[in-house]
Amino acid sequence: MISKLETETLVKEFGAAFGSGEKDAGCTAVQVAVLTTRINNLKEHFAAHKHDYSGNRGLLKMIGKRRRLLKYLATSDDAKYKAVISKLGLRK
Question: Which of 4, 15, 73, 83 has the least CB density, counted as fewest CB within 10 Å?
């Protein structure tokens, strides 16, 4: 889980840079940033709890949702897609 403060920070950062405003939490870039933060936080959990299979299913669902959002972003606005993945460090 990420805190409400972290979410607000991501909304301000990515909403202003890639969305329509600082409070635009529904922007695709903001959603990808929040999912990426949640996925990165779960890496530590799964290092300690290798047999958490139901948690692993939730992680895979989050990864799939992020993949679909990135695919949508790539087809709708290529420049924004490249900026988001470079800022988050997703692809090389």
Answer: 4
